[in-house]
Structure formats: C-alpha cells, structure tokens
Fold this protein.
Amino acid sequence: MALRGVSCRLQAGEVLALLGHNGAGKSTLIKILAGVYRADGGEVRIGGEPLAGGVTASRAAGLAVIYQDLSLFPNLSVAENIAGDLAGRFGYSPAAARQHAATALRRLGMEEAADHWLELRLGDLPIAVQQQVAIARALARQARILILDEPTASLSVEETERLLQLVRQLAGQGYGIIFVSHRMAEVRSIADRFLVLRDGAVSLDGSAGACSDADLAHALFGEHAEKAADRSTATAAASGPVVLDVKGCSRAGEFDDITLQLHSGEVAVLTGLVGSGRSEFAQSLFGLRRFDRGEVRLAGKPLSAAHPRAALRSGLAYVPEDRLKEGLFPRFSVGANLASAILDRLARWGLLPQTTASATRLIEQHGIRCAGARAPLSSLSGGNQQKVLLAKWQNADPQVLLLDEPTAGVDVGAKAEIHERVRAWAAGNKAVLAISSDVDEVLDLADRVLVFHHGRLVFDHPRSGLTREQLVETMLTGAAPHQGAQA
Amino acid sequence: MTTTLQRLLHRQEGRLGLAMAVLLIALAFTAPGFFTAVNLASVVRGMGVLTIVSMGMLMVILTGGIDVSVGSMVAVISVVAARWGNTGAPAALVAPGALLLGAGLGFFNAVLIADLRIPPIVATLGTMGLYRGLLLQWTQGEWVTRLPHWLAAAGRPGRFLMDGSVWAAILVTALTAWFLRRTQAGRSLFRFGGSPIAALRVGIAERRVVYLTYSLMGVLAALGALFYAAQLGSVQGNAALGYELTVIAAVVLGGANIMGGEGSVTGTLLGVVLLGSIQSALILLHVPTFWQGVVTGAIVLLGVAAGAVRRRRPINLRALSGKGSAA
C-alpha cells in the first residue's frame, strides 16, 4: 500500500509544497491526481466537482502535471509541443497550434519565444526553456492547478531563481500550485503551505508561517530528526598533508589559471553556476578532457591525466553525475556493480571469482538497503543506487574521489546519510572534491568551499562562518563576501 | 553567412536532391541509354510499387518501429490475388479483398507488438518467416503464370508510358502527406515515436497507434503487391524475397530517424527515387545483379550514420532571436 488516508486542500493562488522521502508516496499521490493511477478509496474534488478517473478527465478538469522529465516531444516544434492537440479535433492545423502556443508563452511573459522560437525543434533548446514550454503547455490547456514535480532538479541557480519567480507570478494570477522539491531552502522561499508525507500518510499539513524547520525535519524524518539538523557550526577543517596539488591549470574557453590544493581528510565542494567551468575542470582532472596548461600533482607525483585509466591507477577516481547512464549497470546485480571498478584486481587469469561474500560486507558497511547482493540494481531506490555507486568507488580505494553532483535526485534522508558517509570516508586520510549546484548540499557537505565564476576560481575558503546568502551572492556575482567568511 | 548551398545541405531533402543531381550528371556521361524517354519511363514505373510500400514503412518507422515482414506480405497477397482472380472472381471483389487481407496481416503484427509486447523487429521477423512459410506450403513451389485480365492491364504502360502503379503511388503519397501533416492521428505517430511516455501522458494510447500504423502498412503492402504481380505477369512463393531491405533503405535514405519521431514524405519520395535510379543505373552499367544487395545495404548504413551525426548538432538561440537571454 503506497498511500493511506491522505487528505489535503489546495486553494486558488496558493503554493503547496509537497515534501517527503523517495517512497513516501508523493509520486503516487501525483499520479492519482493526474489520473495515471486509480485510488482504491477516497475522492478528489476540483472546484467542488468530483474528479472521475483517467488522464483525460484530470486534464479536462484543469489539472496539469509538469513531470520531472518534462514529458515533452523532443522531435517536435515548440508550437506543437505546447498546443498540438488543441490545433483541431481530427484535423491538425499548424497555424492554430502556433497561435495557441504564442498566446500561452505571452501569458508567461516569454515574448521572445512567442515571436521567434515556435518553429524550433524542442530537443535543441536548453532544459530551462523546455521546462517553460512544459508550463506553457499546461496554461494553453486552461489548467487551473499545476503540479511541478521536482522542477529545479536539473536547473542552475540562476534558472532556479527565475522559475521560482515564475511560480510566484502564476500563483499571483490565481493558479493553484503543488510544488515538489527536495531542496528545503527553495521550498521555504516559495510555499504558502506544507504537506509532508511519510510512509504513505500525512505527517504534517500546515501553513508555512506556522511550521518551523524543526517541525519539517521531524515530519520528514520522524525520530531521526536531529540528524538533518543544520551543520553550520561544524568542522574546523582537518588539514593533513596536501594530496592533490593543482597549479595554474587552464583550458581555452572553459577555465583559466586554476590553482588549488586538497588536503588529506578534507571534503572540498566546488560550486558555481552552470557554465562556470566547474564540471569541465573536474573532467579535465580525471583525463576526460585535457588541460592546455598547468600541472597536477597527486601525493607529490605529477599526474599525467592523459586518460582516465592513468588517473585511476594513480589513485584518482571520478564518480559521474548520471548514475544510471555513466556510473552503474542497471541490469546487473548489486554485487556485480560493487565489483565493477576493481575487476582487474579481482580477476585471476581473466576469470572472475565469486564476489557475493565481499559484496554482502560492502552492502552492510555502506547501509545499502536492498534484497541482497543478487538483487538487480534497478530494484533499488535512487538514494540506495547512489550509495552503491559511492561504495563501488570507495571499494577501489583511491586517494582522491571526485564526485559530480553526488546526490542529484536523491531524497533528503538519503542525502544526509550520503554526506555523512562521504565525510567519514574522507576522515580516513582520503580527500574528496565534490561538485554541486545545490547550495544546501555545498553548505552541508563541505569542509572547504570553492566557487567558480566565468572559468575562474573566485573563492576558496573554509566552510565555517559562511552563510547561505553569502554563498549565493558569490556564485551569482563572482565577488567574495566581505565579512563573516573571513572569520 | 549562410549561403544557399549551406541552407540546402542543412536538410536531408536538400542533400538528397544534390546527390540526385550528381548521379544524373554522372549517368549522362557513363550510361548513354539512361536519358531516353523509354528508359526514364521504365525507371519511373519501377519506382511505383516501392513508393507505395515505402509510405507504409515511413509511418511504421516514425513510431519507432519496423516491419521486416513486408516482403512476405507482398508475396502472400500477390499470389492470393492472382489465384483468386483466376477463379473468375470479379476485380471488385478480389482487389478490396486483397487490401483487407493486407490489413489483417498487418494487424496481426500489431497485436504481437502492442498486446504481447514483442519488440517490432522480433515480432515481424517471426511473421516474415511465418507468412512466407505458409505461402510456400500452400503453393508447393508452383508458379502462377497467368493473371486475370484486369490485373494484367494494371501493369501495362498506358498514358505517358506510365502504368497503374505510378498513378496509385502519386495518390498514396499525397494522402500520406496529408495524413501525416494535417490530422491528429497522423501527428500522433510523430508524438508516440518521439517519446512514448510523453505520448501516454497526454492521453495517446500506444495500442491505437500501433494498430493503426501496422494495419496501414499491411494495406499499402497489399496495394503494392497487386501492382507487383501486375508488372511481373507471374508470381510464386519466393516473390519479393528480401524486399524489406529495399523498402527500409529508401525510408532511411530519405532522412527518417530509425529511432522514430523524425521523417518526411518528401524525404522518403526522394529516397525512393535515388535508390530506384541507382539500381537501374547499375543495370545499365552492366554491374552484376549480386552487387545490388551490397549497394542497398551500404545505403542503409550510410543513411543511418549520416542521420546520427546530423542530429548531434545543437543550435544557438541567441543568434536566432537576435537578442540576449536565451533561457
């Protein structure tokens, strides 16, 4: 049973934040509202009218879901994506589609798109624009209720701000909005009311003003509430010997003259806006790209980062952002995935030994919740898949771990747990360089914060004393904060 | 600066047109017989059946599917229609009956794909063997050497040296273009092929799309089969063996994305014309017929590879709208 006795109300012009772990029942609730699933009991009323089941009925009643994957058609034009099915019942009129689409885009304040982008192929546009197209599609259908499922998961800080502004504007126009997100700060800044689900039931339903962070944490985690508490006072940076030493590294058009040092026992988090060059820099470190100039030393020895294999052999591992496409083998078992980074070490004469025993040990060590080493990876939740990915690389025992967006799409509970484990691992004389665009994650995970801006390292400072506002300011403007952080 | 040539090369249709021009110029010098009215007319007649069947295949490929049973369907229906017609049954019964049989064979493919959830390539590979095997069992290798007079007449060159297949192909092409561009049902093929999940979420039922597409494929294979028999004058169990390769080659060469969601009637038509011209050129140049399979296969691979490379290029929003703030 995914959902039990959930009741909630949404008023016109209200932003309701829907929160909860992965598996708490958010998706199920959304899918019932959208008509994809049928509720076993209970009813949904929109404007007083009971909602019949089915996708078409939900849409007709004015309910629109903007899924995390957007569910658009990358192969079709912007106009057809927004208003394809409005452009005729049996026939299809491209002119009518363009007209409906332009109207919807103008209502969102996207004059430029309405004038010039209607005929562009959607898949060629940036993800933030595609998301606006998805919202425009909902408006074109006369939706009154918008459900945004983790809309900011793949957006940069700038784009997120713009989206939040748009959501406020829509609420101001009288739309009812349900906003699903894992990022507390975002939710705080936008919600009129919170609805928290835990284990399929409502654990909190209250106005934003009446709910403290502690209330939310308690509703989300129950007895583990204290774990999620803010870490703003923690960690005097452990500064062991320098492990990774980067001097004057540049790559034309991407980043320029980067110099930084990583100490053993330290977790440094590199952040910055999308396009600031941070991911390119990390990939160059690992040998996926090349530096034009500069020198990298790992534990004193020059790193010839010509190829990922060379980087791996000298003790540098890179954990990519997209765990299912680049990091793991979804069709293999958990055990096979855990062993996959150290196959050459395990193999004898090209044959692989049975690895179930060691896999079971790793599963326990890393707190991976699964049905055992033989369970298929795809049967695990996102957070547990991410733990498998981390365990796989920690198992390979590198000196330095590069983590690209280590908790993308992972729920709050698993996120805190992953942060905890990463820090514990680093404490054992290792070093971690993580990349993240999630400000909360930067503040929660880092011993030291590094900020890229337009390809330059503009900020390199211990975490302690840095406030959220200062960090966002630095990311946006590239100017180091005046006080506080200098303490 | 974009020159006219660059703009032309940006579209698959433009590139095909250019390739066509180059090929025709080359033929003018190397194959003197090519540009006679009689030869050109026979080249065009040779494209009629391919055009009809390719329009069906275009629709199937648009949904992200494929139908490798077309060769077998063409064989089954040409033999059934010829034998049935020879019993003295009237054209008004046999021709619609043949189309209905085609729809049935296509619908059977659709049921395998949509209801039994068998991937299209496997489902139609199965029926490719099944349909052909049943046909061979029924005919026992016997040829049908005599056609009913109305069927034979459809394959005889008439006005402008064209036969019935050419007129039918023109009609089918126009109807397909209208269907794909101007009807919601036609657009649903693009939507489903572009993203099946997104299509489901806007209320497009996979089953309906698959039923419709593969049934239409069957009908067009049947229509093609009638003219195929008419043009050859005799049919047998091994008719149209390997025809699916030619049909898929024409559609892919015409710029359709084999992963679904992208393709056009114009492109497919140009693909048919280019492929047809190359094949008749090979004959005129006395290239052994065995090489034709090699050339067709190479064209499929080149077409798919070129498409994959082409689709990797992003565009620049700022440049397009002439202002800042792309997002």
The CA atoms of residues 21 and 411 of chain A lie 5 Å apart.
